[in-house]
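Holo prediction — adenosine-5'-triphosphate.
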Amino acid sequence: MLKINDLHISVGDKEIVKGLSLEIKPGETHAIMGLNGAGKSTLAATIAGRDDYDVTSGSIEFEGKDLLELEPHERVGEGLFLGFQYPVEIPGVSNLNFLRTALNSIRKYRGLDEMSAAEFMKLVREKAKALNMDPEMLKRFVNVGFSGGEKKRNEMVQMAVLDPKLAILDETDSGLDIDALKTVAEGINAQRRDDTAILLITHYQRLLSYVQPDVVHVMIDGRIVKSGGKELALELEEKGYADVA
Amino acid sequence: MAGTAEAQKQIAEVTGDYKYGFVTDIDMDMAPKGLSEEVIRFISAKKEEPEWMLEWRLKAYAMWLKMEEPDWAKVSFPKIDYQDAYYFAAPKKKDGPKSLDEVDPELLATYEKLGIPIREQEVLAGVQGSAKVAVDAVFDSVSVATTFREELKKAGVIFMSISEAIREYPDMVKKYLASVVPVRDNYFAALNCAVFTDGTFVYVPKGVRCPMELSTYFRINAENTGQFERTLIVADEGSYVSYLEGCTAPMRDENQLHAAVVELVALDDAEIKYSTVQNWYPGDKNGKGGIYNFVTKRALCKGKNSKVSWTQVETGSAVTWKYPSCVLAGEGSVGEFYSVAVTNNYQQADTGTKMIHMAPNTRSTIISKGISAGKSQNTYRGLVKVLSGAENVRNYTQCDSLLVSSECGAHTVPYIEVKNPTAQIEHEATTSKISEDQLFYCRARGLGEEEAVAMIVNGFCKEVMQHLPMEFAVEAQKLLGISLEGSVG
Ligand SMILES: Nc1ncnc2c1ncn2[C@@H]1O[C@H](COP(=O)(O)OP(=O)(O)OP(=O)(O)O)[C@@H](O)[C@H]1O
Ligand SMILES: [Mg+2]
């Protein structure tokens, strides 16, 4: 589904990702762990199409398509979703309006008709309920005044409504209380299917005990230095990066 | 980096590439070109005006001749040659349309092209049971279709062209015309007095809540025709009226002057809500052409506890020079001003309000949202004035500017004159650049760049847009390039 080959990413003249390769197949869940500043979020944002990052060499393919040729919204249309480490506030725009615009933009990209308001409301209510989100929050402005955990949960509601083929979740577990972590993990597991894939970026083994990954990668200084099964995460937790990598 | 350049390009969408560039071909009955006593006599005769009106116009003209064009606003434009324009152009009279079937199909087609909401098109088309929005279509200076007059009449509301009012209700017109904006108020107002060709008159009697929103579509149509509309709205004691004004204009190459005068009078406990969506041709990408919009809008809150709200969404015109104001003369009266002004390319807007607190316990609220893109200049200019006898005055002003490019300008020029120490005046101002993080967040959820900017801009303007009547808000959002909202928001 996703094929990254020898990817190099720079900001200005600083190289941040330095030759990274990664392949994720349908049905798989991968996790990337790594030190602060390793380039995990840079990688995620580049896959999603943030244009402050320059891809100096290498390639990213999504379902056989050259992702780097596509605009961010086209990537979303193709089935990509990025859960933000720091979800952004948009004053004056209600969560519902935001989500409905997003959903209908994606449907338009796929040549589908807009979803009716009634159908949409039903879908959102259902997903919000599954993720234990207070329906009142749907009416509030996007992320404005949300607590850290509420913002993360909001990202998950968005993911559930938009139903992507590949979800990249950048530290969606950070800042969640224990109950919320469980709910979010359930949300992620619900998104795991034969035809979907998940890329988790996380610092904590705890999430991975709920959402068991097929592959764990260790990223240090812009490279994947080690990959393994889910036991690699446990090993990291015990010994730290210095010993494992 | 591409983000902002793209965003900039896309606000072009917000303000146009002007979609409504077409000229309707209806035979004109024109006054000779230029401005003179003869032309004024021609206009007055064409409108079948009484003698007193002609005298009034000629006096105004004499005054105007002695006045000078103001130059204090932060706008610049080529000198206007007042002799190089026509001051009267009216569609040919065909015995006056008695029903909408008789309305020129070209005019209806024009509404179509303008994207006038279906509800209002239905009204125009006379569909049974269609929504109650009275449309007094001011088409090239003369009202061609007036609907719902009967129902309004039942309620005692007078809603007609100002020319008719001059003939039918001369006493009322004499009493209130220029009572809020004196003839010599400013250069453009004086010019308007001399040559205004049409406009609207509204009177809402005591205790009457006007049964529908009153709506007028202005449209500048003839080549080189200056527009001098005149609107006079009088809300008698305890009455309420909501008036909507909107306009678009055909694409053209030469600059056109628009110098309207709008006067509102609210008596004791009366309320007037005046909403505008302004989308005149702003000129092309290089700043060529476009409408000059020098309009004088003022409300007199004459009675105690009266209230006037101005809400405006300004996206058009090459040069806008406009300050809808409130004179708060009645004790406890309230003035409100909610404004969104979008400028792009070489557009210049110098807009704001004046709140003149003359009486005790008067309150005013000013919310201004300026969005600048391209090489445009967007200035908020506001005056809050408290006279010495006005105890316990309160004002709250908030001016926010959003910059979409690095070559545009946003300016905030607040004037505050307080002569009474009990006044509480609050002023807040912010200027920010459209946020890359917000743009990327929207785009990472599937919104195209244009949609993303439109969404953020819409959010930025929320506090103002929510003051527009529903049917207008939809149109305004369309103008801001936004597709949904409303149904679920
Ligand atoms: N726009 C930018 N300008 C300058 N430096 C940047 C920019 N974005 C990222 N960096 C730098 O790139 C490096 C990688 O950052 P990134 O956010 O990708 O790390 P991360 O692996 O996600 O870290 P964390 O675990 O703390 O979230 C950091 O040194 C960061 O300061
Ligand atoms: Mg990160």
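READOUT: The CA atoms of residues 20 and 250 of chain B lie 6 Å apart.
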